[in-house]
Amino acid sequence: MEDLPERLSIAILGCGKLGTSLLCGFLSPKRSTPTLSTFPSLLSSVRTPLEISNISVTVREAASVDRVRQAVLSLQSTSSPSRPSPPQVTVGLQDQNARAAQEADVVILGCKSYAFADILCDQDVRTALLGNERRKTLVSVLGGVTIAQLQSCLSDSNAQEFNDKQQRPGITDPECLCTIVRAVPNMAARNRESVTIISSSDPSIPPQDDNNRQVNRLFALLGPTKTLLESQINHASAIAASSLAFYAKIIAGAADGALDCGNGQGLSKEDAMWISAQAVRGTSGLVAAGQDPSCVVAEVATKGGSTAAGLKVMEERGVIEAVSAAVKECARATEMLSNASTR
Fold it and tell me: 13, 153, 211, 305: which is deepest, by most CB within 10 A?
C-alpha cells in the first residue's frame, strides 16, 4: 500500500459559495467535533485528519480573485498564533488550472456544474491529472455530475499518449491514472460542521484504499464523513446539503413566531433567531447521539400542554409531509440534472 503524504497539497478549481466554504474550513484553526461518533457503523473510519501544506485556488474573474483573497485575509487575521504551519494559499485565474492541478495531490473541482467539461477537456489539465507517476485524486463537489461524465472528459484518443509517457502499456482507462471521487459537503464546512458524503469511482475499491482514505481524511477536517454508493448520492445530498436551506427556513419561522409584535411581550429578532438556532443545534445533538426523534418529541410534549398545542398546528398544516416532499423533490431535481447533462 502506497504511503500517504502527511501534509497534502490541494487545488480548488472554481471557488464559488461552496468552494469558498471549503477553503475557509480548511484554513480554520477550529477542529471539528464528530457529533455522530456514537454511530460508528454509519461513519467512515478516519483516525487522523490530514494536514494541508498549501492550497491553490483558481477562479474565472478578477473580481473573484479579490473576493477569495479577502476571505483568506480575514481568516488569517483572526487565526491563532499558536497554530502550527497554516496552509499557504495562492489565488489566480483559470488559465492557471493546469499548473494548480499539476502541483496538487488532490484536485477539488468546484466550478459551476455546467462548466466542468471546459475545465477537464483542456489538454493541459488532462496531462496534469493523468500524466504523473503518482496517481492523483480528482474530487468533484458538483451537483448532478456523475463520475462517468467526469471520466468521459478525461478519456479521449490521447489516452495512449498518457500510457506512453507512463510506460504503462495496455492501460486505456483514465481511472487507472486518476482516482475520481464525488463528495457532497455542505455550507457548514466553513465552520467545520459539515457532513460529507463520499463516493469513489470504483465501488469495488475498499474504503481502506489509499486514495479513498486520503479523501476521507481530508474532508474529516470539515466534519464527519460517510461513504455511500454513487447511486445513493442524489438522495443523500438532499438531506446532507440541500436540507440546510430547509432547516434555515424552520429556524427563521420559529423565530418569527416569538417576535415582539408591539405588545412588549415578544423577543427581538436577534434574540429570537439565536435561541431558535441553538434549540435546533441541541435537538440535532440529541438525535445524533442516538435518540429517536419520536422520543425527543415525547419527552418535550405532554398531553394538553403548550408544546402539544404547537405540534397540532404543525400537523394540521402538514409541515412534516411538506419537509419530506421537499427532500424527495430535491433528489428528483438532482437526478434530472444528471440526466440532462448526459444528453
Answer: 13
